Amino acid sequence: MHIPDGYLSPQTYLPFYGIMLPLWYLGSRILRKALNAKQIPLLALSAAFSFIIMMFNIPVPGGSSGHATGSVLIAIILGPWAALMAVSMALIIQALLFGDGGITAIGANCFNVAFVMSFSGYYIYRLLSFNSGTNIPRRIFAACVAAYVSINLAAFFTAVEFGIQPYIAHKADGTPLYGPYSLDVAVPIMAFEHLAVFGFIEALVTGLVVAYIARSDPSMLNIPALSKSAYQRSVSSARRRLWIGLGILILLTPLGLIASGTAWGEWGLEEIMQMLGFEPEGMKNMSNLWQSALPGYALPGLNGPIASVVGYLFSAVVGTGVVLLTAFIISRFVFRGR
Q: CA-CA distance, 284 to 177, in Å (whole number)?
């Protein structure tokens, strides 16, 4: 769901910036009041986790691929506003440094993955886990359902954004200027992939981590019968374990190279030309709008399987470092004067 440059027309991507800018501002104000200083590292690590987990691409029949996002998991632990900010940071850095998602589409991508997923997942989880107390299996079930439903909602919004392009941005003869596939193509394909595959992957990742947290640091899920001191200790110990877990995930990121296919709706101009026999004019004009430093999570000029693994690992380390640094800088700015 990383929409590239050239797939959305200006009349689509500009309104999403108009939606997200006030949401980011409101999110920073809410986090300033809601989070304490000891939770800032957890927020930074959550953003890094989202960045890394999105590097684990999973292949699906037909040659496409996709990944989990971690949005609902972060929302369950830190709340939907924290998830909005953390996942947005990951998505923005993916676009700027690695060309994963377009610069013009940052607003739309953050709306779909950081806003829709985080808030829908959080409230579905709250609804299903209401009054569950120490009933851990029910909380895990609620987290899995929330993750499954929310990623499908995000996929639906993404499909609609893709699908309306031929209707609202085309030449006089009807030739699409941007995204070429209409609603009757985009919605069924995105629905199938996420209902059949990626929804379960998101649910599995979310459920496993919630199960682990419920056993090791239950206060992070607001499970009752823990003292304030126990809460502070659990946050501290969780942070240490998250660092270790994050390091392990970084080392495993080359597994994401197993999925060689391009995710649906993220093709380059050459692939579009092969599929359609023409390049949409607006898409062509915007294709080189931004040159990222490490395009495709690879080292420029190096080819071959070993170079791909090295480049992917290097990108994971650099990306994680930039996400963490950005999160700490933004957090210090937001919490300044408290």
A: 9
Residue 2 lies inside a defined structural domain of this protein: no
pTM: 0.93
Give the mean model confidence (pLDDT) for residues 252-258: 92
Q: Which residue pairs, CB below 8 angstroms and at least 24 apart, start in 90-96?
A: 90/47, 90/48, 90/50, 90/51, 90/54, 90/323, 91/2, 93/51, 93/319, 93/322, 93/323, 93/326, 94/2, 94/51, 94/54, 94/319, 95/2, 95/290, 95/292, 96/290, 96/292
Straight-line distance from the first to the last Cα atom of the chain, in angstroms, rounded to the nearest whole number: 37
Give me the domain span that covers residue 255: 10-334
- Assigned domain for 228 exists: yes
Query: Lowest-confidence range among 15-29, 107-121, 212-226?
Result: 212-226
Q: What is the CATH number of the domain that holds 215?
A: 1.10.1760.20
Is residue 205 scored above 60 in pLDDT? yes
- How far is the C-alpha of 243 from the C-alpha of 46, rounded, in Å? 10
Residue 330 included in any domain:
yes
Domain assignment present for 255: yes
